[in-house]
Amino acid sequence: MKTLSTQKQARRTARLVNPARLFQISLAALALTAACLASLPTAQALTVATVNVAEQQTLDGQTLALNGAGLRQRFVFQVYVAALYRPTPTTDVETILNSPEPQVLQLTLLRDINSKALTDALNDGLKANNTEKELAAMSATIQHFETFMATGGEGASGDQVRINFQQGKVSVSFKGKALGEVTDPRFATALLKVWLGAAPAQESLKQALLGQKPTSN
After folding, report:
1. Collapsed DSSP state (helix, strand, coil) of residue 168
2. At 25, is the pLDDT very low, low, confident or very high (cuts 50, 70, 90)?
3. Residue 58, exposed/middle/buried by CB under 10 A (0-12, 13-18, 19+)?
4. N or C terminus: which one in the chain shows less Cβ crowding within 10 Å?
5. Are 111 and 79 in contact (CB under 8 A)?
6. Where are the beta strands (DSSP E) in the chain?
7. pLDDT (tens digit per residue) in 71-99
8. What is the rounded distance in angstroms from the CA atom of residue 215 to the CA atom of residue 194?
9. Is 144 left (phi over 0), alpha (psi -120 to 50) or beta?
10. What burial letters (b/e) apply to 14-27, b meaning 16+ CB within 10 Å?
């Protein structure tokens, strides 16, 4: 009896350490891990209007994930596609507005527009989402921002405006050319409010940038 029991135990041990059996167990564990990772809520790359929005961007070597993207329309005209990138996607607007983490807002133009028209639109958004007192306190920063934005020149459909936010610094490039930067945490928040404030450029775009399904324009 003892010998039979020992033999059964040996066969059971052999099955457990069998290379083929171990390989099957490993595959099952990997499949389970992949399924768990796939169930995590992450922002996916998508197409908005005719623009294929990248899933990631990098800023100073750090990879940023797509938070959300949407279409800016003016009356019946499609103006640009905006895409927001962060280290970790979030739907909390206050986290984005006040974050010291690197963030990128990329605008892909869908029609011809010059830098003056774009700057005027941004100024309208600043006025709509910040008090006169707040704007007055940032007047020097805003003036510097307007000055380097004016050097951008003409833009055409497909051109991109990239706005980097990093620890209170805002830098802008247009058509791949660096235009300039300002360092003022107040202005970084104020500029983000153009799209994410209480009076955004477009409510449906705000919701899209937050990774939410737009419910209105």
Report:
1. coil
2. very low
3. exposed
4. N
5. yes
6. 46-48, 51-53, 56-59, 62-74, 77-86, 103-109, 113-114, 154-155, 160-166, 169-174, 177-183
7. 999 888 999 999 999 999 999 999 999 99
8. 19
9. alpha
10. eeeeeeeeeeeeee
Strands 62-74 and 56-59: antiparallel
Work out the angle between the directed axes of helices 115-129 and 139-149 (0-180°, nearest 10).
160
- Extract the tokens encoding 197: 């404030």
pLDDT digits (tens, 9 = 90+) for 129-178: 999 999 999 999 999 999 999 999 999 999 999 999 999 999 999 999 99
Distance separating the N- and C-terminal Cα atoms of the chain = 81
Q: What is the pTM of this model?
A: 0.78
Residue type, 171: S
Q: 39: pLDDT confidence band, cut at 50, 70 and 90?
A: very low
Q: Which two tokens stand for residue 63?
A: 């990879």
The CA distance from 41 to 27, in Å, is 24
Per-residue pLDDT tens digits for 94-117: 999 999 999 999 999 999 999 999
What contacts 24+ positions apart, CB below 8 Å, involve 87-91? 87/62, 87/63, 89/41, 89/42, 89/43, 89/65, 89/211, 90/210, 90/211, 91/210, 91/211, 91/212
Contacts of 58 (CB under 8 A, 6+ apart): 64
